[in-house]
Structure formats: structure tokens, C-alpha cells
Amino acid sequence: MPAIAPSEPLTFAQAMELQRVPSHDEIYLSRYPALSYDYAPGKPLSVQRSYGGHVYAQALWAASQTIRDTGLRVHEANGYWTQAGHANRPFIFEIKTLSQTRSFILRQVTARQPTTPSDDCPFPLSDASKELGPVAFALTCSFKAREEGPGYWIKLNREKYGDLLQKDPTMHPASEYLRGPNRAGTIRLADFPGIEIRTPDLTAYNEKNRGTEHRRMHIYRGVAPLIEDPNMIAAAHAFVSDRAGLSVLLHTFEAKTLGVSGSLNHKMVFHIDPEKLNLDEKGWYIQEMSSSRGAEGHAVIESRIWGPSGELVASTVQDAMFRSIKPKLS
């Protein structure tokens, strides 16, 4: 019998839950399935590819398990997708140390999956003993000691969007679905664990700003129960950060669809201590996205994440593969 997806939406802590695999190495098994592009609560787990932001965030959280006694916090994360993930089996994360000083620790995480689906959910520890496929995702991430000192930053220019960002965030449309790459299907955003997402309508702005000036945006906040661990807070922001990158390409290229598309690499830098990035129902974060260059089958997607006060709190750069649909020969 195929494993069954949880009937209720997971909390973010549940979605990130890991179990240590008995070993001399730092190896962890994910307990719950990643969202997939035909995920259905209470139904058999999907055979479709999984949402890439899940393994990105969970790899970061897995690395965080190895530095719990240091007091260090996530500083940056650089991930590479090498295989499509599957939602009907766990990820097995192996963590290695690349460098370690008093102020910084650099970890490497590789994620693999069993070659066969799991028979149960939550995923049992025995799944880690199955034959594993090739590396599906690789991450390097650094953790740093908290520091106090002078700083500078830019702030969100709300005025360039007119009065759009002056309204109550709950008045913006709820993002009901996330469309997957290569017609993989959709994810119902109500199933996103512990996060509410809204999408401001930038149609008026984008009618006058096309191509590389095009902007995509979503705003998000946490929902109860609140996340308390600073490194899990960072993982939650990382989870959301991968949500809409490929849609930026669709609009920048003014294409209805891309033939083949997918994220190759995603880098995220946290500019302030994650402890200051609380995800709760009071503070809304804004992710503002654009693409400055696309050619030869891939494109770069940049984003800035602004905190509730308009302060720049994190930045991302994503490299994505794209190939346009070639017209059929008559």
C-alpha cells in the first residue's frame, strides 16, 4: 500500500522534522513528505516532483542540528538541485564540516532519496537503510557568531508602486496555487506549512515596466504555532524564497509558457541575525523579484526580502534553466 499524506496541514516544525540515523557520521532522515505538484492531504503520496524550496530549507535545518551548542546562526546558504525530488519517499541528509573557526562554521549537506517509495508516513527510520539514488540536492551553508556594530542599508521604495503597499496586507489576493515547472501541476498554498502568502497585483506597474524592469512580489507572515529557534526561522524564510522564481522568467520573457524550466542554484544571504526575523501574525515580509539577464538556456533571478519596517533583511540570487517551446513542424 502506498504511504498516505497527512490529512491536516503540517506545522513548519513538523515539515522540517528530522530523525538522526545511527552512524558515525551526521546523517538525518526527513520524517514528513515535501509538498509536491499534486499533493492532496489524506491521499496517497504523490509520484510527482517535490517543491524545491522544501529540500533547500530542510538541508539548512539539518546542518543546524550539528551546531546546536555553538550559539551560531545561519548567515548564508547556497544550494544546487541536481535531480528532481520525489514526495513519496524521505530525503536522507549527510552533513560534513568544510571549515570551522570561533566565528564561522561552514557545512556541506548532500540530500539523497531511496530508489523506491516509502510504505508509511511519517517515514520510518528503516527507509534510510534502502538503496539510495544519486545526490538530488547539495548545499553549502555558513553559520556565524552574533555581532553588534554599525550598519547601513537601503529601504523598500513603497512609493514606486503607488498606494498598493499602503493597504492592509490581508486585502491583497491570497495566493491559492503555485504552478510547477514543466506543467508538473500545482501546489495549494494553503498546504504551505505555517506560512500565509499574499500576492499584490502589480499589473498597473508592470504595464509600464516590461522586460528586466518587470517585478513580481509576494508578502508573507507566519501563522501559529510560532517558530522560536532562530535557525528554523531562517529555514522558514528559505522555504518561501524559492516560491515564485520561475514565474519571473515567464513574465520577463513575455512568454506564456517555457518548454523546460527548473532551478539550478539558489543562494540566500541573511543580512541580520535570524532571531530578528520573527515570523508571526503581526509582521509581514515582502519578497520583491526581478530578472536582469537571461540567455543561452538559463537566467538569473534576483530578489530582496524586506522586513515589516521596510529594512532589507535578506537577498537571494537564483540561476534557473529555461528553454522555450519550439513550434511544431506542419
UniProtKB/TrEMBL annotation:
Residues 49-114 form the Acyl-CoA thioesterase-like N-terminal HotDog domain. SUPFAM superfamilies: Thioesterase/thiol ester dehydrase-isomerase (SSF54637). GO terms for biological process: acyl-CoA metabolic process; fatty acid catabolic process. One of its GO terms (cellular component) is peroxisomal matrix. One of its GO terms (molecular function) is isomerase activity. Keywords: Hydrolase, Isomerase. CDD domains: Thioesterase_II_repeat1, Thioesterase_II_repeat2. InterPro entries: ACOT8-like_C, Acyl-CoA_hotdog, Acyl_CoA_thio, HotDog_dom_sf, TesB_ACOT8-like_N. Residues 223-321 form the Acyl-CoA thioesterase-like C-terminal domain. Belongs to the C/M/P thioester hydrolase family. This is Thioesterase/thiol ester dehydrase-isomerase. It comes from Aspergillus terreus.
